[in-house]
Amino acid sequence: MGGEPEKWILMLTARTPTNIAVIKYWGKRDETLILPINDSISVTLDPGHLCTTTTVSVSPSFDHDRMWLNGKEISLQGGRFQSCLREIRARAQDVEDKKKGIQIKKEDWQKLHLHIASYNNFPTAAGLASSAAGLACLVFSLSKLMNLKEDNSQLSAIARQGSGSACRSLYGGFVKWVMGKEDNGSDSLAIQLVDEKHWDELVIIIAVVSARQKETSSTSGMRDTVETSGLIQHRAKEVVPKRVVQMEDAIQNRDFPSFARLTCTDSNQFHAVCLDTYPPIFYMNDTSHRIINCVEKWNRAEGMPQVAYTFDAGPNAVMIARNRKTAALLLQRLLYNFPPQSDTDLDSYVIGDKSILKDAGIKDMKDVEALTPPPEVKDSTSLTQKSKGDVNYFICTRPGGGPVVLSDETQALLDPLTGLPK
Amino acid sequence: MGGEPEKWILMLTARTPTNIAVIKYWGKRDETLILPINDSISVTLDPGHLCTTTTVSVSPSFDHDRMWLNGKEISLQGGRFQSCLREIRARAQDVEDKKKGIQIKKEDWQKLHLHIASYNNFPTAAGLASSAAGLACLVFSLSKLMNLKEDNSQLSAIARQGSGSACRSLYGGFVKWVMGKEDNGSDSLAIQLVDEKHWDELVIIIAVVSARQKETSSTSGMRDTVETSGLIQHRAKEVVPKRVVQMEDAIQNRDFPSFARLTCTDSNQFHAVCLDTYPPIFYMNDTSHRIINCVEKWNRAEGMPQVAYTFDAGPNAVMIARNRKTAALLLQRLLYNFPPQSDTDLDSYVIGDKSILKDAGIKDMKDVEALTPPPEVKDSTSLTQKSKGDVNYFICTRPGGGPVVLSDETQALLDPLTGLPK
């Protein structure tokens, strides 16, 4: 071990995207290794709007592994963190930083301790797959710090052991988590189907929906589903394999109608098996249902899908519009049906890529109030009422790229001298 | 044709119960004959609280078939009404009323016209299977007027062609609709499993839930499910047949835990296949979900089911309590979680068998306001808020008997001299 003895700190910062499944992962065949009962496919979201940034650091002066999430220290004792740390340390290589005069031999990594700070640029509790981005970023940043030789696909198999869907955050674009066959999980990993440039017309709008009920964690939820649902095995064995093939084709061919149909039906079927669980699990609420009805009505009126929707283990809607034009029309419809509460300003109600708002011709709250019912709503006195506050805010984004190392040291979350959060 | 020519009116009034499925019917294999893709099992509800009363009359002075529902004339031209009328007329027999001096030969029924008046003692629009009771009552009352030799099971196969679930309203107690195998539907009919005295401890509480959304009709809903769901065939072929056997056992043995488990899981699975339909169908809303969570939490706390719940094609909850004592405890919980709006009086908020309210120790609105959280609710500051007005009213009832002819002529809905609604 070189450098100024006991004083040096080696540090690296990386950023990893979140992802949303368009063919859903629900149900494990191995709880510890996190091996799924079916393949899944996701789209990576632009890290400019939704991502985790993680700084990892190592120093002989650190006396135990520590981690801070959004500035608050959290325990690393959980089995899933421990699995990831163990797997990464086992693959660590020699590291040399000539500029700083630091040399670390691969066997040293077993004794050295880590400080890790992680930050989500979106609310952790909003149900936006923060654990996926977080675990992926932990694994990715540590692999770079420790100079691992593994490629992102091999790293995904480590991230998978931290949080199943994290494995899909190791790539940009469209990603497939291959369920694999091996008992040890070595072939259960993510591969990139296409990168984010392949289908760059797509625009994604997320509705962060207010939840009145506490939600079932996805870990216990999917365990209950596998144990009690009479439909989940049929879904995993008969339905999903066909859909995965069709979805890969739809993505390769940029076939939006097929993509939308598969995305929507697979989201609905995931929520169906949740409902078929005993006791039943409800992730979608009345607001989620109204968003679906709004999109379905519009798609039907247009005679072909304009927008796909998908919901994870919570009430938030992720809507994928075929292009910027439909995204602007979608945003008009969403703001018409789900206006903000009177004390909310537009700037905090629609966040992310604000240019969609501009395309929709909406500059301020007066423009929102002036929105007229879309043509597909024939009966404006319908039972479906507008109610303010059902949606907390909207995020406009797009498919995005995979993990990157941030070379700009000012973006580090840890102090380079103390190794503690800035 | 005898009697005073062209002047006489022969009239008969009958009352038929409604029913709620505990193993659900969803999906037809023949749309015209209304043949289902699986067996179903229902409990008949006490006609004292929920029933249809129908008066049927025949007279040579009537020049066409006419029908009034809840006082308003409706068309009989629909294929389903026509199927029932055709099937019944084809089986009509000679009728003689010596007192009135009326004689009708069976061949006369093809030429004679009918006046029919029907009345539900509960709101038609409340989603409480009014069409089941209505069609059953139409078929039952006409069969008596026309002196049919068919038993109730054979009549059920006629009622089935009017409204599938109507066939189960031909008997009291617990009833099975056998799906049958014949293409002509002759063996798709209802049989009584046990009468209403077999398991007379059960108490039923119905929550009539406010709906914000217009609902999908069950006819088009189940057609869409059969055409688009990837799970419905697995349910019909693999899951339901086993549950039907288990449910018959549970009913025979008055095994409440098994009965409750089967009832709840089958209701949930029915709603799961609705969600797996494209576009998805949502019958339950947030209030329905909260009712389920309330019941599930209590059942779990007691270590064994106290209450079963089931939902048809709408948000209303039908809860079946194992006995009067649990029903009173259930009503306390329901009134605690779903209090009436301040301008509602208790007498119109809890209707039907008011003795359950008395057992619950609730005499007036002050007693409702004084209700404390049940012991299973540990965190009274939980996210689940009480909100007034989510439930329109509760109906307390019990399993009940089958169709009966009402001999009291004052209960007739048609004027005996004019044949028009009173």
UniProtKB/TrEMBL annotation, chains A, B:
Its main location: other. Performs the first committed step in the biosynthesis of isoprene-containing compounds such as sterols and terpenoids. Pfam families: MDD_C, MVD-like_N. It is an enzyme of class 4 (lyase). Gene3D superfamilies: 3.30.230.10, GHMP kinase, C-terminal domain. Residues 204-405 form the Mvd1 C-terminal domain. Residues 17-190 form the Diphosphomevalonate decarboxylase-like N-terminal domain. The lineage of its organism: Eukaryota, Viridiplantae, Streptophyta, Embryophyta, Tracheophyta. It comes from Mikania micrantha (bitter vine). The keyword Plastid does not apply. One of its GO terms (biological process) is sterol biosynthetic process. It is found in: Peroxisome. It catalyses: (R)-5-diphosphomevalonate + ATP = isopentenyl diphosphate + ADP + phosphate + CO2. Homodimer. This is Diphosphomevalonate decarboxylase. InterPro entries: GHMP_kinase_C_sf, Mev_decarb, Mev_diP_decarb, MVD-like_N, Mvd1_C, Ribosomal_Su5_D2-typ_SF, Ribsml_uS5_D2-typ_fold_subgr. It comes from the Eukaryota. GO terms for cellular component: cytosol; peroxisome. One of its GO terms (molecular function) is diphosphomevalonate decarboxylase activity.
